[in-house]
Amino acid sequence: MNVLFKHLNPNKKKPKYLTKLDQIPQLTDSEKQEMQKVNDKFVFRTNDYYQSLIDWDDPNDPIKRIIMPDVQELNEWGELDASNEEKYTKVRGLEHKYTSTALLLVNEVCAAYCRFCFRKRLFMNENDEVTKDISEGLEYIKNTKEINNVLLTGGDPLVLSTSKLEPIIKQLREIDHVKIIRIGTKVPAFNPFRILNDPSLLEMFKTYSTNEKKIYIMAHFNHPRELTPEAIEGLNLLMKSGVSMVNQTPLVAGVNDDPDVLTELFTKLSYIGVPPYYVFLCRPTLGNETYSVSVERGYEIFEKSRTRCSGLAKRARLVMSHESGKIEVVGMTEDQIFFKYARAAENDNNARFLSFYRNPKACWFDDYKEALDEFSLFSETTKAGCL
User: Fold this and answer.
1) Is residue 26 part of a domain?
2) Digit-coded pLDDT (tens) for 350-384
């Protein structure tokens, strides 16, 4: 065993998964009854480690907000595939929206389920978007030479055993034009013991994250309280294994929609060496109205937070993963708000700059687009390179 990982003890604590509200002793009977209505529609899953982070004396505890059902999820708002990912599905389990990037949906299970998940449709019985046989997706990637990076997502790829994850990584590494492999995961927050207890996972990363072709872990810490000693140890072990780390988070009402909280999250991540990458405005996904933060309030929170951070901690960008592309919120005046396509599905939109009259109620790009269509409140769009 590599000297870096020989101290790991596979017999350390292994969290117990909890999938029934009756397993949460802190809930009253009436709370269980209320939450069960939500549970009947949107799946519930947590573990005793993550539950231990909740302050049950605080009715507004942010960790509780992340993981425990809220009856407001039953509000009729949004749609299951809010960014129309189906439109970009080329073969089962593979999405190809941006020229150089492909998404492989390798798993329909997470270590726990965020209440504000934008892919909650994957966890419903009638969904068949994810396949255990990714051979068709790999063949598509092999035959599409412009793809130079592949994001493994789902579900959570790190829920897979190392023996199931390694063959996927190995096959991607055998495709010469795939230079970057990314893994989107909340396991370092939900269950750091998956990392701490498995030396083979770290050995696998050491093998396939090479000097010239890195594996990137796209971590998902939403609140600074998730950065426990165990989580920080897991992050450092991942970095020692040779992977590159970044963090991304949605801006979630009641969790991190506060400049103080977001500043603390960015700062702590920078201390650890995990750069903040993207802050996402919540997609208008079915059930997510209660977690959504308006675009303009979100921008104000984000910018207030960034002004308090060092350059190393303020590298995140505020974006929306819209059907048409990744749209960054770049500025705001008293009466206008400005967007730019950081990445677009259509090449003609790449780096396109857009200006709209402000709409404080807008929660998504389409809320401005509808205003544009109805009132023609659109100032001239142009390529960023022509400004």
Assistant:
1) yes
2) 999 999 999 999 999 999 976 555 433 343 443 33
pTM of the model: 0.92
Output the domain CATH number for residue 237. Answer: 3.20.20.70
Amino acid 375 reads: F
- With tokens 């990076």, the residue in question is 149
CA distances from 291 to 59, 65, 167, 202, 280 (A): 16, 9, 37, 35, 12
Using CA atoms, how far residue 137 sits from 16, 134, 165, in Å, is 33, 5, 15
The CA distances from residue 302 to 104, 117, 270, 376, in Å, are 30, 21, 16, 29
pLDDT digits (tens, 9 = 90+) for 58-71: 999 999 999 999 99
Q: Is residue 9 part of a domain?
A: no
3-state class (DSSP) for residue 235? helix
**Per the structure, how many domains does the chain have?**
1
Q: Does residue 308 lie within any of the structural domains?
A: yes
d(CA 354, CA 378): 8
